[in-house]
């Protein structure tokens, strides 16, 4: 039975619009049209121009048959075309599939087939790789795509064409859409992003317009970002759609500073030249800046007018070492730690800095900031639970459980994988697989991934805790700890270590360093100085190290 508030109060176009981050682009073009939206080498585009280019791309894709529910795959570095794809594809109700530029041809072909892509936009740098992927897609799956080639002005190699359409020519040939509009239903898919697939096939994480809109807003609220931020793209936009920052920057009328390749000099030069004030990166990228020669960092504390400024960095990862956070503070960067997964649109929790933290010494501030923290303001729930009983663990900093999320910033589910979707959302919560404790202030601190816990003589050892101890040695620039089979203890910690440029330390010295910080049974029994495999976003690939540890003589 209806009540008085349901009578003669209809939902209409005047008082209800489905949430979509596409609306941010239209607003910035309308209000801040003359302001610089994109910087890329010699290219500069205003918000009015970015809106028009995105509307032309949408019009061109429509002419190629792209409709609501169709998938557009893109193989692009952090360039203006990647920004435009994040605005144009969702405006058609189509689904954006950003491909990882580090994958091999077979996996790229598998993903494009799985998400049933109809169009591919690809940068000419990746033409040889994508040529193989497209051939596999046709021979193994019988699928052919329409291909749009991007010849980026900043790419100095050969501009090889795979398709019949060149990006700039295609834009010039199409009248822009009158308006970039979101979907009629905000639950519509906006993107499909694939997990790493370390065991079995990758899972296609399907996200929706409502979640992307809300997380884009959350980014600005969480980081207290002002209008017109100058944002440097050190984070690959293919990774969780750049943590929703393509849409965050649009909402604030900011400037995208694009970067094709990530290295310390390129990052620091761009920060200085364009007065960058915000950037996001994995811990390994922040470590690059800490270890860069001091002369490369000169002038970062001031803007072009000579006024002082602080560069703000967002770091995400299962456990960025406290030593890294402390190191960034020492060189004058303001670091905020966030946590999340592809299934929650990138970051969905934050170690909120409270005023009381300022009274603590630098080491304690780094420890507090190194926690995974509390839920984003528009995420409805985050807690630590016993996954068997689905009851919350006590906030004692000791009892381990699994981090779980619920709310608007959680994926729709896994594409064509109802079993995995049901398991991951069981009990009304998204199960992350990350093991953690809840501290007395209800800030969450990860102890480990469930598969990364080392069980030695019946005792659980957090590989993250051991890694954090190693990172506190100034010679260590990257490390990873995995289980090594042991005939007596079952498993013991094995550490893989990369040293900072020019640094020297021996395995016994590192073991002695760990003994001063950890209980004896947690100390690595072996240190190996070897290259550590990483993803394109800097995330360490422990599954490869586990395989490496098992393949060596385990019981010697």
UniProtKB/TrEMBL annotation:
<dbReference type="InterPro" id="IPR045851">
    <property type="entry name" value="AMP-bd_C_sf"/>
</dbReference>
<protein>
    <submittedName>
        <fullName>AMP-dependent synthetase and ligase</fullName>
    </submittedName>
</protein>
<dbReference type="InterPro" id="IPR025110">
    <property type="entry name" value="AMP-bd_C"/>
</dbReference>
<dbReference type="GO" id="GO:0016874">
    <property type="term" value="F:ligase activity"/>
</dbReference>
<dbReference type="InterPro" id="IPR042099">
    <property type="entry name" value="ANL_N_sf"/>
</dbReference>
<comment type="similarity">
    <text>Belongs to the ATP-dependent AMP-binding enzyme family.</text>
</comment>
<keyword id="KW-0443">Lipid metabolism</keyword>
<dbReference type="InterPro" id="IPR000873">
    <property type="entry name" value="AMP-dep_synth/lig_dom"/>
</dbReference>
<keyword id="KW-0436">Ligase</keyword>
<feature type="domain" description="AMP-binding enzyme C-terminal">
    <location>
        <begin position="465"/>
        <end position="539"/>
    </location>
</feature>
<dbReference type="InterPro" id="IPR020845">
    <property type="entry name" value="AMP-binding_CS"/>
</dbReference>
<feature type="domain" description="AMP-dependent synthetase/ligase">
    <location>
        <begin position="26"/>
        <end position="415"/>
    </location>
</feature>
<keyword id="KW-0276">Fatty acid metabolism</keyword>
<dbReference type="Pfam" id="PF00501">
    <property type="entry name" value="AMP-binding"/>
</dbReference>
<dbReference type="Pfam" id="PF13193">
    <property type="entry name" value="AMP-binding_C"/>
</dbReference>
<dbReference type="GO" id="GO:0006631">
    <property type="term" value="P:fatty acid metabolic process"/>
</dbReference>
